[in-house]
Amino acid sequence: MNVSAVMMRIIRQFVRDKRSLALLIMAPVLVLTLIWLVLDGNEYHPTIAVESIPAPLEDRLHDEFNKEILTKTEAEAKEMFEQGKLDAYVSIKDNNPFILLEGSDPTANGAVMQHIQSAFQVTQSNSTDRNLTVEYFYGSENINLFDQVGSVLIGFFVFFFVFILGGISFLRERTQGTLEKLLSTPIKRWQLVTGYIFGFGIFTIIQSLIIVFYSVYVLDIWMAGSVWELLIVTVLLALTALTLAILLSAFAKNEFQIMQFIPLVIIPQVFFSGIFNLDTLAEWIQALSKIMPLTYGAEAMQEIMIKGKGILEIWDNLVVLCMFAFVFFVLNLLALKKHRRL
């Protein structure tokens, strides 16, 4: 009897909590759909450029890659590498084959090399003594999969932990009555939100420092750029996550409901932040990544860590992150206006 009473109480509690009931159904469906969309894309066909190579080899490369082969000089190829429009450049130097790989994606590097080597073996069966020279525009042959996705993972963990820390902390301010008392004073809403952001922000910055320095100096993740410039990106991403967490916590009644936002807000961003190649997906799916803050933070981190670029070269991503933070800040002011009326 006692067991059935407890069971019925739990069932009634879930039935009354419409948000939990909806999430019970929607969350797994959403996540599985995202996985299907990302992993069910078309095969990726690398883009390569050639210069001064024998016609039979160019024809074979065309067959291997099933894609048009561009004719570019090495300088033009390097410019396309910087624009992210080329995967490899092939030419003949000193009577030996020369390959220049873009280098930032180990998976793409391996696929490109497999096709190129196959083409060389078929067309140069009588010239197997030739030395193949391979160079990397970004990274090196030592860069691995963890180095590639590590920058995305740093951005994800910063975003995730700051979201949890900020959301739960602000929720406690509400449930303990602190927010209500502050709103009853003459303090302005923008001052209150700014104070919360700076207060919580100190701890999010500390957390960001730990994540970045541990990843770079302990895990020895590939780092071609400046650690301090990486920290600037990390702090901006953490600020965006914090303002979003404070905003969503205004609509949660308890800590469990804060956790419910994770499958809807955090997990989808992982699939569109650079861990998976989105070039093989439909354009409308790629467009989804443009409305997710983690996309811009992870891209900026990859540019610094793998390609060695500086802040001035990734300013557009930083501006977008600032815009996200500003929009969430304004929405927080509107949310506080509702609480002040209450």
Automatic annotation (TrEMBL):
<feature type="transmembrane region" description="Helical">
    <location>
        <begin position="318"/>
        <end position="336"/>
    </location>
</feature>
<keyword id="KW-1133">Transmembrane helix</keyword>
<keyword id="KW-0813">Transport</keyword>
<feature type="transmembrane region" description="Helical">
    <location>
        <begin position="258"/>
        <end position="278"/>
    </location>
</feature>
<dbReference type="Pfam" id="PF12698">
    <property type="entry name" value="ABC2_membrane_3"/>
</dbReference>
<feature type="domain" description="ABC transmembrane type-2">
    <location>
        <begin position="109"/>
        <end position="339"/>
    </location>
</feature>
<comment type="similarity">
    <text>Belongs to the ABC-2 integral membrane protein family.</text>
</comment>
<dbReference type="GO" id="GO:0005886">
    <property type="term" value="C:plasma membrane"/>
</dbReference>
<feature type="transmembrane region" description="Helical">
    <location>
        <begin position="21"/>
        <end position="39"/>
    </location>
</feature>
<protein>
    <submittedName>
        <fullName>ABC-2 type transport system permease protein</fullName>
    </submittedName>
</protein>
<keyword id="KW-0472">Membrane</keyword>
<dbReference type="InterPro" id="IPR051449">
    <property type="entry name" value="ABC-2_transporter_component"/>
</dbReference>
<dbReference type="InterPro" id="IPR047817">
    <property type="entry name" value="ABC2_TM_bact-type"/>
</dbReference>
<keyword id="KW-1003">Cell membrane</keyword>
<dbReference type="InterPro" id="IPR013525">
    <property type="entry name" value="ABC2_TM"/>
</dbReference>
<feature type="transmembrane region" description="Helical">
    <location>
        <begin position="192"/>
        <end position="218"/>
    </location>
</feature>
<feature type="transmembrane region" description="Helical">
    <location>
        <begin position="149"/>
        <end position="171"/>
    </location>
</feature>
<feature type="transmembrane region" description="Helical">
    <location>
        <begin position="230"/>
        <end position="251"/>
    </location>
</feature>
<dbReference type="GO" id="GO:0140359">
    <property type="term" value="F:ABC-type transporter activity"/>
</dbReference>
<keyword id="KW-0812">Transmembrane</keyword>
